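Q: I'm writing up a methods section and want to include an example of the input and output format. Could you take the sequence below and give the corresponding predicted structure tokens, formatted cleanly so I can copy it straight into the document?
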Amino acid sequence: MEPEATPQAPAAGELPEAARRGPISHAIFRVARLHRMLAGQLLREVGLHPAQELVMMQLWDRGRMRQTDLARHVGADAATMTRTIQRLERAGFVRRVPSTSDKRSVLVEPTAASQALRRQVEDLWARLEDYAAGDLTDAERAEALAVFERLEANLAARTGGAEAPGPGAPGV
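A: Here is the clean output for your methods example:
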């Protein structure tokens, strides 16, 4: 009887066979997964889940907004935005109010309690940036950002005309 072959995991840095024709895509996946994991760890320190801080950033900068506009700015679908707003509302960071000009619209606004959170979110995003960029020089950081923006534009152009959220609002 023949011994069973033991599957071997690819060595560190080695691409799986099926990903060899898409090394940049595989790298994006790996980096995004690790970035989101680390962001989640940092956000737990302030009582948030990943992407909730993106919603808060929009509200802090723009003030009261229609929920549909907020979803568009963050790059989220309506159902995801509704769940995110509900969680933030339960935590006391946002409040929903009916629009006086459009009875179908709901406005979302940051609460006073969320203002104390703002500095913490800014600080943890600075830490996340430092962790991600590591020992890159200022020039390398600028080059990396330019490459990521080009990658985003390339992908946005292929998504059926979907608008990319832009530098201030990565997708939820």
